[in-house]
Amino acid sequence: MSLSGGHIGVVTYTSVIIGIAAVIALTFVSFHYSSFISNKLGKKEMNVITRLMGLILAVTAAGMIGAGLKGMFPVLVS
């Protein structure tokens, strides 16, 4: 689904708005209960979660760098 061109109907806008509202609600709930969650988790569990989030961030960065290099140097793609 692309919102950049063509005819965009009411259903498309409604689904996008519902998706955005769901993400906002989940973010609010997770921030609201973050102190409760961190109190229930121990030090080891928080370290594991921190390392996993760092790994996810590193993988995302590597993917973005790879996409940028492919765009800059199309010869590398072949």
From TrEMBL:
Location(s), subcellular: Cell membrane
Domain of life of the source: Bacteria
Record carries keyword Transmembrane helix: yes
Keywords: Cell membrane, Membrane, Transmembrane, Transmembrane helix
A Pfam family reported for this protein in Swiss-Prot or TrEMBL: MarC
Topology class, membrane: Multi-pass membrane protein
The name this protein goes by in its record: UPF0056 membrane protein
